[in-house]
């Protein structure tokens, strides 16, 4: 269910820097408890195998159960240094949740998503609320940035989990269009919903 604007907690004046957001989470029992859970499930030593399914469940519990203003403040926190951006990329969205030895083809990832009830529903929500349009200056068909950001967040903890690319604000799922053959256009369109989507970009910029 998509919340109303008042429930999203993503107003620009609510946005914190990452130190403040982490501190606020640690001072809240629910936020700290759920964050500790996904750290335990997702942040394993390099020699330990990653249980991606358990990591995904813990991430979904965090974003589904922690107060929106705290969980989204942590996800969309601001950084002023490259080290902070690295920590944001690696700890708020642990590599276990999305990264594999080799990038799979995006169409294969999409097919897995369609066979999973939760992922399929949340991807549909993302496509509806983050649909890019060229005729609208805002970039979004719904012209509701908060709904787009909420739908984007809903994909976290699924096989389509997106993350920041390097230290930029650009995001992408962990997949590639290499080897798509005659379905290259279809694959590039799917990947472009994250990497070349003015609605999603404007939604991030609106914070």
UniProtKB/TrEMBL annotation:
Transmembrane segments: none annotated. The keyword Signal applies. It is found in: Cell membrane. It comes from the Eukaryota. GO terms for molecular function: signaling receptor activity. It comes from Petromyzon marinus. Keywords: Cell membrane, Glycoprotein, Lipoprotein, Membrane, Receptor, Signal. This is GDNF/GAS1 domain-containing protein. One of its GO terms (cellular component) is receptor complex. Belongs to the GDNFR family. Residues 18-96, 106-199 form the GDNF/GAS1 domain. It is a lipid-anchor; GPI-anchor. The keyword Transcription regulation does not apply. One of its GO terms (biological process) is cell surface receptor protein tyrosine kinase signaling pathway. Pfam families: GDNF.
């Amino acid at each position: 269910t998509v919340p109303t604007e008042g429930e999203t907690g993503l107003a620009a004046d609510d946005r914190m820097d990452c130190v403040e957001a982490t501190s606020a989470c640690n001072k809240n029992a629910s936020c700290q408890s759920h964050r500790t859970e996904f750290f335990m499930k997702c942040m394993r030593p390099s020699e330990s195998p990653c249980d991606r399914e358990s990591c995904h469940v813990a991430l979904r519990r965090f974003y589904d159960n922690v107060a929106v203003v705290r969980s989204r403040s942590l996800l969309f926190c601001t950084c002023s240094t490259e080290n902070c951006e690295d920590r944001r990329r690696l700890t708020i969205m642990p590599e276990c949740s999305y990264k594999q030895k080799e990038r799979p083809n995006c169409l294969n990832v999409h097919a897995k998503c369609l066979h999973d009830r939760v992922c399929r529903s949340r991807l549909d929500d993302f496509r509806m609320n983050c649909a890019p349009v060229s005729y609208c200056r805002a970039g979004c068909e719904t012209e509701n940035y908060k709904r787009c950001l909420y739908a984007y967040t809903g994909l976290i903890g699924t096989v389509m989990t997106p993350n920041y690319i390097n230290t930029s604000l650009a995001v992408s799922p962990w997949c590639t269009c290499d080897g798509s053959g005659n379905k290259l256009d279809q694959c590039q369109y799917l990947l472009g919903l994250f990497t070349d989507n003015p609605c999603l970009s404007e939604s991030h910029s609106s914070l």
